[in-house]
Design goal:
Blueprint (H helix, E strand, L loop, with lengths): L6 H8 L3 E9 L8 E14 L13 E11 L11
Antiparallel strand pairs: 1-2, 2-3
């Protein structure tokens, strides 16, 4: 997530709508307990622009797909799992 003073605006503009929610099992590992978690899935395609300071005229914008998976309603004493 974007974290600065304008993050509310940026997250509303930049973050795509939710594509779906999935229930997954998070296994016990180290000091983490196993639990069932709800994960929210989002995806978006962005275009990486050509650098303004390049002299290479053959460059073109590059389309990149980004996927976000974030745990919803995580217990307060546990750090949310995200991908």
């Amino acid at each position: 997530m974007l974290r600065d003073e304008s993050s509310v605006y940026l997250n509303r503009y930049w973050m795509p709508p939710t594509l779906g929610e999935y229930t997954i099992e998070i296994t016990q590992k180290g000091g983490r307990i196993s639990r069932i978690a709800t994960v929210e899935l989002k995806a978006k395609q962005i275009a990486l622009r050509i650098p303004t300071n390049t002299k290479n005229k053959e460059l073109i914008p590059l389309a990149v797909n980004i996927a976000f998976a974030t745990e919803k309603n995580c217990p307060e004493d546990i750090e949310p799992q995200g991908i």
